[in-house]
């Protein structure tokens, strides 16, 4: 899903879909020169718990923010942290861990650009646990229960 207003665009490189462990290069374009923008990430796990992170950035003279280059000025983390919107995700629940019970479905990370309390762009990053062609084989032998994942 991709949503934008007034020409602001969030890009995820190399793609909006990727493997769970792949790095994602996030850029925002179409901002005003030196405009401050808050980027927010949100993930809901399989139990319904919500995890969120945010960071404030300042666009360069061409109206762009590049998380590989530009430092977060505040929020869940500070400094240049290209994957900060992912690793800094936290739940409001104390000592809560992310739960993904069905690894055949992607985890959906929503990333929003917010200015003056309005969402000006939004994109969803699909992060997959299994690559194409991986076979999932249930194992039930005696008291043993599990799943065997076989590479393509």
TrEMBL record:
<feature type="domain" description="Acyl-CoA thioester hydrolase/bile acid-CoA amino acid N-acetyltransferase">
    <location>
        <begin position="22"/>
        <end position="141"/>
    </location>
</feature>
<dbReference type="InterPro" id="IPR042490">
    <property type="entry name" value="Thio_Ohase/BAAT_N"/>
</dbReference>
<protein>
    <recommendedName>
        <fullName>Acyl-CoA thioester hydrolase/bile acid-CoA amino acid N-acetyltransferase domain-containing protein</fullName>
    </recommendedName>
</protein>
<dbReference type="Pfam" id="PF04775">
    <property type="entry name" value="Bile_Hydr_Trans"/>
</dbReference>
<dbReference type="InterPro" id="IPR006862">
    <property type="entry name" value="Thio_Ohase/aa_AcTrfase"/>
</dbReference>
